[in-house]
Structures are given as C-alpha cells and as structure tokens.
Q: What sequence folds into this?
C-alpha cells in the first residue's frame, strides 16, 4: 500500500500543479487581454468608485468635480458651469464613456500616472489618494465673454496665446449640459444623449475644433503668405488691376468681387479691401499650385492639429490641381484645374478649416511665423498641492520666415486701421485682423461670417489670437464678416488682454 | 497487520506528542495572526475603518482555537500538528471573505465554525479507537446510502438552484451528501480491507487485464452504482465525480492493481458520455467550459466573471476588501476562490492551493505511518475527499474542468460542509494519534 500512497501523493501534486499553471495563465499572462474585453466593465466600475480630480480653469474656477453619493456608483461627476465649458471638459459618463479633457487626461484625473503614484507613495501615511487636479490654460473670464458676445448666435470662438499655444477660450454654440449626459443614472444619461443627438446644430459636437467650414476671405492670409514666401509677391509688386472680376485660365467662368465692386492694387491694399479678383489671380499666376499647397500645409492644413483634446478635425486644402498644361512667361505654371486653384486661393471650393485652424493662422503670423502646439493643459497638481507635471510648450509648424511674418503682420494691422476690419480697433493695442464672408447660397443669401485677429501692446509680440465664425448668417456682403463676427472677436480679444470696457 | 498493536514506549510518545503540540500551537498563532490581519485589512479596504466587532472577533477566534488545541492535548496528543492550523487558516480566510461579501452570512458562518469546532471536539472525545468504526462498516455503508438518498424523499427533500441535495426537517436544512461521503469512506475502507486479498487476485483473464472474481465486486459496484444514480437524479455532478474518484482511488490503493484505475477511468468516461448525451444541463456545462464567451452575459456569465475577477487581481491582487464584488453568482460558496484570487492575487490563491496540498500531504503521511490497513486506507479516503473536492471546485472556477458546484472545504460558506469537514479532520487526527502510539517495534515483531 505504501507504494500506492506515494503515487497518490504525486498525483495530487500534479493536479495542484495544473491548477497553479492555469492560475498563472489567467492572472498573469492573459490578465490584460481579459480586462480589456469589451463586455468587462470592471475598469469603469472601479473608476466610478474612486475619487477623481477636479478640472480647474487658469483663473481658478472649478470646471468639473466629483461628488460623493450614497449609491451603487460612489462618485457623480458635476460641472458647476453647466454648458459653458462642455466642449473643453467634455463629459464623464458611466454609460456613454468620456470626452474632452475628461478623456484626454483620464489617467491624471484618476491618479494613475507614474508621477501621481510616486507622489502618493510619499503621502502614504496621511492616506491621501492619488487623484490629480488638471489645471487648464482656459480662462473663465474670457470664455464667459465669448459666450455672451456670441449671444446665442450659432458659431464658434477660439482664443489662444500665440506665444505658447495656450488655449484661452474655446466656445461653440449650440452646446450641451455635461451634467445631464454624465448622470450616473444610465437611463437618464442615455435619454439625454438621444435628445441631444436629435437636436438641431449637433450640440454634442465641439464645433470649434471638430467641425470644418469654408474659411472664405480669411484664407487670403495664407495665399498672401505663400506669395511673399516664394518671392513672387512683395508689398510693392505686383500691382493688381482694379477690376470687378478675374477670369482664370481654361474657363470662361469669372470670379467676381462682392457686389460687383471694383478693386485692385498692391498687397496691403488688396488685403485691406479683401479683393477677390486680385487674390484669385495671385494664387493662379504668382504663387501656383505647388507653392499654394506647400504654404497651406505649412500653416497646418491637411494634418490633425496636435491639440491635447480627442479627435480634432483635419482642415483641408486640395493637393491635386492636375497636370501642368502650359508654362507662360513671367507667371506660375498653369495647371489643368486652374479655375479650382483660383477659387481655393480665396478660401472657397474644397478648402475647409476648423475655427481652431484659422486661429492658428492668425497665431502663426503673430508669432513670427512659428505656430505653437495648441493645448489646454497647464499643469497637473496632486491633492497635496504639489505640481507633478507642467505642460512644456513646443513649436508645431513654421508657417513662414520671420521676415515674411513681419510683413504679413503689418498687412493685417492695415486691415484694422484702414480696411474691412476697422471695427476691431482697441484703444492702446495693436490689432491685426482679416475678415471673411464664406458665401453658401444666394436664394436666400446666406454665409459664414469670419474674423481672425491678433492683438497686443504695440511693439510687443501679440498676446492673443482669435478666430470667430458665426455660421449661417443671412446676407453675404463684403462687410458681413466684420459686422457680425467682428464684435465677438473684439470683445474676446479685449477680455484676454484685460482691457474690457 | 493482525499482530502487534505493540505500543511504543511512553517516553517516545511523550516527546513526539510534545513536539507536535508545540508545532501546532506555534502554527495556530501564525494562522491567527494572518486571519486577523486579513480581517482588519478587508474591513479597512471596504469601509476605510477597522471592523466594529474586532475585539469580540479576536476573542472568539482565539477561544475556538485554544479549545480545539487543548482538546487535542488531552485526547489526541500525539496527533499530527499541521492539520488543525491549516484548517484554521482556510476557515479563517473563508470567513474573512464571506464577511467582506455579506455581513449576515458571516454571522451564520461564525456560528457554523463554532459548531464545526464543537463537532471536531466531540468526534475526538467520542471516537477513542478508530478501529471501532471498522466493526460497523456495513452500518456506515447503509447510513451513507440513506443520507445520499434523503433529498429524494418527497416532503423533506428540497430542490435549490437546480440540484436536489438539500433536506429540510423543521427549521433545520442541510446537505446530507456532505456527511454521506465520510460514512462511505469508512464503509469502503472496512470492506476493502476485509476483501482485499480476494479483490487483488486475478481469477479471469480478459485481454491484457486480470479480472478478479466478479462476486467480490458486487458490494463495491452496488454502492458505486447507487451513488451515481442518486447523483444523476439529484443533479449533483461535482459530488458524483468526487465519489467516483474516492472509490477508484481506495480500490487501487487497497489492491495495488492498476487495472482498477483503467477500468474506473473507462467506466467514468462511459458515465460522462452517457450523461452528456442524455442531459441538457450537462451539455450546457461542457459548452460553457469549452467557450464561455459564446454567451458571456447569459450561460457563460458566472465563469466569464470569475475569469475577469482573477485577471483583475493579477499577481498581487487588489488587496482585501478592494476588489469589485457582487458580480459573480454564488461568490460566497462555489465561487469564493475567484474572490480570493481577485483580492489576494496569484500569490494568495497559490497560498490556498498550498494549504490544501499540505493537508493532503499530512493526510497521506498519516496513512503511510499506520501499521493498520484499515486506518491507513481510511486516511487515504478522507485525504482524497478533502484534496479532490478542493481540486474539483477550484478547477471548475478557473476552467480547468467543467464547473460542478460543490463547496471549497473549510472556505466556502455552508454549515453542512464545515461541520462534515471538521468531523473528517477529527477522524484524521484520531488516526494520526493512534498511529503514533502504535509504532511497530522491530524488536517485538513476531
């Protein structure tokens, strides 16, 4: 019997070794894959039962915080300002997931970054939890002005600091109340989402960085920069003819000026008047397809801006204008699609830009040709107040050489002192701007009203760049952009500079 | 085997007994510290505060352990020193996790633990000579079968969660199967010792196998068949598997004939195939075992959630009280191992595996040291019950085998299970004590 008993012992050993091996497989080797399975809601469940840091504005307002509840899910996310910051903070919902800063900086808010965990180790004895507060560059005062100035019109406002890319305000109307979609009651949250999805104007969509529009005449800043950069345009030459329309090669369809008016002249004059005929001619005859594409992409078109928010939209400029069909003396080569290039040069046809992108165009000119990476994060702070992470500004694109940028800056200041954007003048500040009126239809006449601008104390690098679009405005004249979007842009710039009346 | 129950010299027994009791006391203190630490941590993890009843809890645990230890000193002083501390550790871990999941069940489990220790004490006090059980082997056989069939009786049998393994008499409800397994182990040990020579002799040759006289098989096959039929009607697959293994292992250990293992496996395969082809619930179990993700929110839910719990725990676990509970049906009973794996991680789960393995080792060592065949075989049977039952349920939870719901000995919530396992433990201790006292002496060998 002794032999059998010994063998039985070995058999038990083998059986338990099998259990041990299988445990290793489940708990170690397959653990991550099992935790990541879509129907496994443990990660979510944990997150809603642990404290989460606040989202705080640059001027100290709490934009999102977690309140403890006596319920199945211990923490309810609350947004004290409701709709105001919805497109920046996003939402944090058990049933709908997360968006915006809540999603982008989830690990910091939940306290799962190495820096926060290390910090918590030090605070172990004081039983501090590791969640981090996310401090934004966004200012509540500027954001509030953006909302109030938009005054219920459909549209978007983006304001940023050209020197380091800090977003100061980013607001779109219509918007939504993140408190509702973040309700821990999954039924209420889902009902709210259905309602918002059906609502006119797509309130859940952060139009400011996820929706694209025709940039219209604001794009002329890019065309002018392209001309200056490749040397085909200077402040003195060419001197465009004063005409009512321009007919590109290979077509009989002309591009006319607003209201059939006549305009022309050198760079500063045609930018100040926003002359369609001159700029479409510049795009086709001076710059040419290749340099237009190059310059547009140098400003950030055809790429997702590296903003620290989820899923930014890519602004678009056409890259293919067909084969070169002729090389006339003294002007750029003519492509098959020259008529399309003419329209693209004034921000029509297939050109599409987010309000964020157009703010970056203004910022690039203001910052000596260098576009800084746009961002909303300033720093992450542990619960004990220690800053564990600070956003390091970095350059994203070089849109133009400093000399070209300086000329463009002068030209855009000219638009404010003596052009379509005179309404943008702010006492004691140097302001440069460009208006835009992207026509949508003629019956009835509707358009997107644009204003891009930069402002700051004279002689210093501008401190704020702004882009405003008011969408689906009735009427479409040369003045629409300045009249409708201008006051909003000015109010926001004033608030950012702290010179509001 | 007949001879000499020659008793070892008293001073030898004394020194052995002293050593073993000292070891036991030390290990009990260790188990006490581990369990109390876990209890405090689980409460801290869950409520961020120490449990309100921590004082009475400490006193209660200590009292029970001290009583058990003193009774062993008095009535079985030469018994093995590992078994009680291991059982106390497992029982304590089980209690901590039950308390972490459900306060009401925890109170009941505490009562059952006290009753279990009482049963342990009574068994040690009453059963002074294990050989007495051998005399009543057929009685035990009948008791075992009767207990097994009790739930099938109309009026008192209860069908709970698809298995008809409960008996309800007045206010008391229990699972007689838990006690039947001990009775049947006693019967088998006695019967096999009586007939082991006959069962070991080949009378026929069938192919490569030597088959003993079928007459000697009848009682074994009979008990086996009845047990299986009952299991099928009670839909208690886990217990059926446990009995199967118990019978085959005891038969093989007693006779040394590997043919019994082969025949047993063959019969088992036949039985498995039969029940698979005839019963939907068996097919479902196998289906879930093969791929629970076919229906992760329906039939596969329990197994899938157990896998998620284990994966969530990883190597070190979430920490006691910090896991996400409330997701696995039967997490206090059949699936408690998944919760332990989640909160104590691979390390804690492995510690539990080691505890069972050490108990099995101790049990088999007792069997080795017995000079008496019945005692030796009974320890093998009891040890097999313990080790294989733990294996079957853990294997089911972590998807090594199809899931068959039985309790995890000493850990799962359940009065019948706890009580029966403490009786089982007391019997093993009794055998160990007697074996130590009856060490055969070469000098007086016949």
A:
């Amino acid at each position: 019997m002794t032999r059998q008993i010994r063998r039985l012992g070995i058999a038990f050993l083998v059986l338990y070794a099998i259990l041990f091996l299988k445990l290793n497989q489940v708990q170690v080797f397959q653990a991550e894959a099992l935790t990541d399975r879509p129907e496994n809601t443990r990660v979510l469940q944990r997150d809603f039962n642990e404290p989460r840091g606040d989202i705080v504005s640059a001027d100290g307002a709490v934009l999102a915080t977690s309140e403890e509840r006596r319920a199945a899910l211990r923490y309810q996310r609350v947004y004290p300002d409701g709709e105001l910051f919805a497109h920046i903070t996003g939402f944090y919902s058990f049933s709908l997931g997360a968006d915006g800063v809540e999603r982008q900086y989830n690990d910091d808010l939940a306290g799962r970054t190495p820096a926060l965990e290390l910090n918590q180790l030090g605070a172990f004895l004081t039983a501090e939890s590791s969640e981090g507060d996310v401090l934004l560059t966004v200012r509540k005062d500027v954001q509030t002005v953006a909302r109030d100035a938009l005054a219920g019109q459909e549209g978007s406002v983006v304001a940023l600091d050209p020197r380091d890319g800090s977003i100061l305000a980013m607001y779109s109307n219509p918007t939504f109340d993140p408190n509702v979609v973040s309700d821990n009651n999954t039924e209420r949250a889902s009902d709210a989402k259905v309602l918002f999805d059906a609502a006119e104007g797509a309130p859940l969509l952060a139009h400011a960085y996820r929706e694209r529009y025709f940039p219209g005449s604001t794009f002329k800043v890019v065309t002018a920069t392209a001309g200056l950069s490749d040397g085909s345009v200077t402040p003195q030459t060419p001197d465009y003819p004063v005409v009512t329309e321009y007919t590109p090669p290979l077509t009989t369809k002309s591009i006319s000026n607003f209201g059939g008016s006549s305009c022309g002249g050198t760079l500063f004059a045609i930018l100040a008047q926003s002359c369609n005929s001159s700029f479409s001619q510049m795009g086709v005859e001076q710059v040419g397809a290749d340099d237009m594409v190059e310059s547009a992409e140098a400003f950030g078109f055809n790429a997702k801006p590296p903003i620290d928010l989820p899923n930014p939209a890519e602004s678009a400029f056409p890259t293919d204008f067909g084969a070169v069909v002729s090389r006339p003396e003294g002007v750029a080569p003519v492509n098959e699609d020259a008529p399309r290039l003419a329209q693209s040069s004034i921000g029509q046809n297939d050109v599409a830009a987010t309000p964020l992108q157009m703010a970056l165009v203004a910022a690039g000119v203001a910052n000596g040709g260098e576009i800084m990476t746009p961002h909303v994060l300033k720093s992450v702070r542990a619960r004990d107040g220690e800053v564990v992470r600070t956003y390091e500004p970095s350059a994203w694109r070089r849109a133009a050489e400093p000399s070209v940028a300086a000329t463009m800056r002068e030209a855009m200041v000219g638009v404010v002192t003596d052009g379509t954007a005179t309404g943008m003048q702010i006492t004691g500040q140097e302001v440069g701007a460009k208006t835009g009126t992207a026509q949508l239809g003629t019956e009835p006449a509707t358009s997107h009203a644009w204003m891009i601008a930069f402002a700051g104390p004279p002689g210093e690098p501008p401190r704020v760049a702004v882009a405003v679009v008011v969408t689906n405005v009735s009427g479409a004249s040369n003045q629409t952009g300045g009249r409708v979007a201008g006051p909003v842009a000015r109010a926001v710039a004033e608030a950012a500079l702290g010179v509001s009346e | 085997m007949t001879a000499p129950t020659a008793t070892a010299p008293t001073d030898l027994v004394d020194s052995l007994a002293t050593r073993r009791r000292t070891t036991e006391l030390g290990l009990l203190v260790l188990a006490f510290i581990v369990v109390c630490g876990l209890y405090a941590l689980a409460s801290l993890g869950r409520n961020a505060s120490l449990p309100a009843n921590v004082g009475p809890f400490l006193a209660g645990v200590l009292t029970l352990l001290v009583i058990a230890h003193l009774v062993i000193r008095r009535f079985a002083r030469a018994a093995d020193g590992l078994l009680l501390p291991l059982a106390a550790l497992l029982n304590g871990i089980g209690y901590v996790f039950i308390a972490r999941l459900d306060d009401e069940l925890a109170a009941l489990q505490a009562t059952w633990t006290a009753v279990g220790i009482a049963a342990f004490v009574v068994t040690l006090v009453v059963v002074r000579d294990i050989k007495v059980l051998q005399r009543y082997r057929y009685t035990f056989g009948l008791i075992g079968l009767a207990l097994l069939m009790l739930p099938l009786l109309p009026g008192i049998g209860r069908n709970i969660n698809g298995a008809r393994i409960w008996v309800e008499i007045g206010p008391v409800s229990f699972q007689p199967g838990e006690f039947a397994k001990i009775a049947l182990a006693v019967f088998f040990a006695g019967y096999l010792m009586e007939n082991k020579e006959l069962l070991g002799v080949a009378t026929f040759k069938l192919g490569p196998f030597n088959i003993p006289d079928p007459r000697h098989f009848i009682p074994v096959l009979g008990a086996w068949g009845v047990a299986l039929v009952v299991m099928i009607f009670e839909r208690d697959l886990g217990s059926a598997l446990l009995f199967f293994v118990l019978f085959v292992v005891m038969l093989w250990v007693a006779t040394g004939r590997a043919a019994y293992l082969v025949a047993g496996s063959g019969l088992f395969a036949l039985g498995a195939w039969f029940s698979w082809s005839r019963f939907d619930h068996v097919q479902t179990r196998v289906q879930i075992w093969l791929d629970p993700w076919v229906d992760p929110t329906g039939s596969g839910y329990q197994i899938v959630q157990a896998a998620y719990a284990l994966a969530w725990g990883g190597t070190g676990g979430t920490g006691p009280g910090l896991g996400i509970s409330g997701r696995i049906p039967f997490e206090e009973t059949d699936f408690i191992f998944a919760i332990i794996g989640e909160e104590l991680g691979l390390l804690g789960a492995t510690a539990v595996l080691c505890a069972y393995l050490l108990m099995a080792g101790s049990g088999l060592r007792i069997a080795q040291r017995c000079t008496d065949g019945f005692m030796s075989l009974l320890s093998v049977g009891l040890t097999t019950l313990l080790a294989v039952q733990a294996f079957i349920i853990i294997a089911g939870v972590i998807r090594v085998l199809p899931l068959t719901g039985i309790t995890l000995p000493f850990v799962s919530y359940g009065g019948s299970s706890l009580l029966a396992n403490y009786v089982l433990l007391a019997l093993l201790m009794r055998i160990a004590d007697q074996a130590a006292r009856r060490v055969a002496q070469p000098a007086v060998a016949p």
Chain B has one domain: 10-444.
